[in-house]
Each structure stands twice: as structure tokens, then as C-alpha cells.
């Protein structure tokens, strides 16, 4: 019984140590394998996408205020134009990055190239949305 308990504790500690190794955060500057590079590129895109979503909310609010300031309801359309531009931009971003991925078609770099492209264009769009309202306020 004593040996069974010792073995169970040892297995538990071994499993915990292995899990801790797996759960260690990936330092992208140290990424070596293609899987790590893809994960890092995807993480970069997710970070930029969160920034975009935050800026989108701020920009949409400001643009809504522009519409509200226009007395003639028939002349309002800032929010509609913003939504139209964002939908077109998403379509452009996705198509452009897919095309960019074909530059390395068949290679293991393709997912990283696409994710980094998505991150780059998303970063630029965030700046555009910020500039849109910063120039007016």
C-alpha cells in the first residue's frame, strides 16, 4: 500500500511538471519551430484585432455623434458609410492576405505569412480609424 501511494504521488508530480512545461508561455523572440512561429503570428494578429475592435467602438461612437449633430435626418449617413468601409476593408484584408500566402504556396511558411499579413493590415486599419476621428475632434 505504501509503495502504491508513493508511486501515485510520483506520477502526479511528474504529470504536474510536464503540464507546467507545456503551459509555459511561448516567447516569440525564441520561436524556432514552424508551429511556434505560426502560434506567434496568430497571437500577433489576435492582439492587433483586439486593438482594432477597441478603436472601432471609439470611432463608431464619434461617427454616431457626427450623424446626431446633423439636423436633417435624411442627410445623415456617417455610420452607414463607416460600416460600408469596414465591410469592404475586411473583404480586402482577407483577400489580400490570402493572395500574399500564395507567394509561399506549398510551403510550411504559408500560415505564418497569412497571419502576419492580417496583423499588419489590421494594425494599419486601426491607425486609419483613429486618424478618422482625431482629425475632427
From TrEMBL:
Keyword Signal on entry: yes
Signal peptide: 1-20
Domain Lysozyme inhibitor LprI-like N-terminal: 28-129
InterPro entries listed in its UniProt record: LprI-like_N
Pfam family, one: LprI
Keywords (A to Z) from UniProt: Signal
Cited PANTHER family: PERIPLASMIC PROTEIN, PERIPLASMIC PROTEIN-RELATED
Listed name of the protein: Lysozyme inhibitor LprI family protein
Organism: Rhizobium alvei
Amino acid at each position: 500500500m505504501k509503495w502504491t501511494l508513493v508511486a501515485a504521488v510520483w506520477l502526479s508530480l511528474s504529470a504536474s511538471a510536464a503540464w507546467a512545461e507545456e503551459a509555459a508561455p511561448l516567447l516569440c523572440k525564441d520561436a524556432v519551430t514552424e508551429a511556434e512561429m505560426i502560434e506567434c503570428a496568430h497571437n500577433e494578429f489576435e492582439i492587433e484585432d483586439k486593438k482594432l475592435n477597441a478603436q472601432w467602438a471609439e470611432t463608431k461612437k464619434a461617427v454616431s455623434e457626427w450623424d446626431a449633430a446633423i439636423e436633417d435626418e435624411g442627410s445623415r449617413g456617417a455610420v452607414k458609410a463607416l460600416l460600408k468601409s469596414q465591410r469592404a476593408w475586411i473583404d480586402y484584408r482577407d483577400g489580400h492576405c490570402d493572395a500574399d500566402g500564395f507567394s509561399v504556396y506549398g510551403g510550411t511558411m504559408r500560415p505564418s505569412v497569412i497571419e502576419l499579413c492580417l496583423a499588419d493590415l489590421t494594425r494599419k486599419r486601426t491607425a486609419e480609424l483613429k486618424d478618422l476621428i482625431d482629425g475632427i475632434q
